[in-house]
Amino acid sequence: MIGRRKVLRTVLRAGAAVLLAPVRALALAIPAATREALATSKLIYVATQRKTGERSTAAPVWFVWENDAIWTTTSPDSWKAKRIARGSPLYVWVGSESGPFLVGTAERITDPTVIAHMGELYSDKYWIAALGFFRPRPERVSSGKTIAYKVTVAEGTPPPPPAK
Predict the structure, then answer these.
(1) Mean of the per-residue pLDDT values for the chain?
(2) Which residue range forms the structural domain that includes residue 66?
(3) What string of H, E and C letters represents the secondary structure of the chain?
(4) Is residue 163 domain-resident?
(5) Each residue of 84-105: pLDDT tens digit?
(6) Is residue 26's pLDDT more than 80?
(7) Count: domains in the chain
(8) Has residue 78 got a pLDDT over 80?
(9) CATH code at 102?
């Protein structure tokens, strides 16, 4: 007999897959120039949506691009993490604040194997990460000191900058 929790998990996963299918389909439509920028850029600039609906200020972020997704980390105390947990989309500019724009949906990652792989990719991309600094580590994620995300992206229209 299958337990209720297992059935509920299966139904929730299937529902999430159906809801995320349009975003995944749009991700395939990312222009080649944007894909190239994601593959070669050292930084992305990320903003989130505030409770008021206004977007936050864009901040530079380290990342890796693999399997048509952006992989990145942040502090659990950051506004970015709090807004993502609330369901905010991620606004992403590639390479500079005037670079190609994408809208993303962030999914929290806790799998130690995936996070260790992210650390290897960071080491390949950033020299200081190769020395062992500022790279994703499974033990930091499992202890709650760092949050890791997989961001599924699609083309979009940038929201207006925050009011000053």
Answers:
(1) 88
(2) 4-155
(3) CCCHHHHHHHHHHHHHHHHHHHHHHHHCCCCHHHHHHHHHCCCEEEEEECCCCCECCCEEECCEEECCEEEEEECCCCHHHHHHHHCCCEEEEECCCCCCEEEEEEEEECCHHHHHHHHHHHHHHCHHHHCCCCCCCHHHHHCCCCEEEEEEEEECCCCCCCCC
(4) no
(5) 999 999 999 999 999 999 999 9
(6) no
(7) 1
(8) yes
(9) 2.30.110.10
